[in-house]
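Quick one, tokens below:
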């Protein structure tokens, strides 16, 4: 399929050397766009992409939530203490908990790797 798109001149210059890779660039961009748009993964996309990049054990151990993700988490915690979460917020909270679980597993395995390489 052929698609024509009007883009600003500065973007056109940057894309000109990447013409053969445009389908892959668009695919990656759409994946990120869709992940950001999904209500359950707001703020979590960065964490998941970081882990998917197979970081070093040191990088994994240094991983901390972004300030915006930390604010979202604190907001859920506060609301849960005061008035409780809606069904949708509870679903989102469960997704945050699951990603936190994955990060904890990654950190535990990173620590094991570091200990093994030093011993």
């Amino acid at each position: 399929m052929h698609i024509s798109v009007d883009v600003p001149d500065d973007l056109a210059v940057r894309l000109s050397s990447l013409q053969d890779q445009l389908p892959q660039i668009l695919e990656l961009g759409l994946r990120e766009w869709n992940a950001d748009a999904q209500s359950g993964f707001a703020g979590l996309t960065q964490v998941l992409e970081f882990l998917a990049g197979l970081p070093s054990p040191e990088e994994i151990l240094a991983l901390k939530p972004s300030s915006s993700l930390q604010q979202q988490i604190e907001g859920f915690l506060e609301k849960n203490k005061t008035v409780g979460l809606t069904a949708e917020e509870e679903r989102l909270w469960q997704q945050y908990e699951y990603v936190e679980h994955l990060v904890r597993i990654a950190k535990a395995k990173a620590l094991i790797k570091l200990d093994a390489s030093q011993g």
